[in-house]
Amino acid sequence: MRVALPHTLSQDELRRRFHARSDELKSLFPAGMAQVTQEWRDEDHLDMVITAMGQRVVGLVELQGQAVVVNVDLPPALGFVERMIESTIREKTQKLLR
């Protein structure tokens, strides 16, 4: 699943906001419902691994010039919640852009 959120921030401001607040992305999941690990690959790419309900989900947040792009590799067993996950990603990521 790919979710792109346009923005008008400078690349430096985008980086500043996401690096300062990237832990807030963990709030995509209710406390105790998932284990989330994050690691900045470089200043524009955040790797995430989410383990929940016996499933492992790998994601990548890319800070691009005109959009923040979130790529999530959903296992087939979680396909039924794809729209809900996309909606939550949009909501939480938009908050980081403000």
**pLDDT < 50 stretches:** none
CATH architecture: 2-Layer Sandwich
On the 0 to 100 scale, the average pLDDT is: 89
CATH T-level fold name: TATA-Binding Protein
Distance between the termini: 24 Å
> What is the number of domains?
1
**What does the radius of gyration come to?**
13 Å
Q: In this structure, how is the largest beta sheet organized? A: 5 strands, antiparallel
What is the count of helical runs? 2
Please give a structural write-up:
The protein has 98 residues and is an alpha+beta fold. It has one domain: 2-Layer Sandwich (TATA-Binding Protein). It is built from 2 helices and 5 strands, in the order E-H-E-E-E-E-H. It has helices at residues 11-21, 82-97, and strands at 2-6, 35-42, 45-52, 55-63, 67-73. The radius of gyration is 13 Å and the shape is globular. The two termini are 24 Å apart. 14% of the residues are buried.
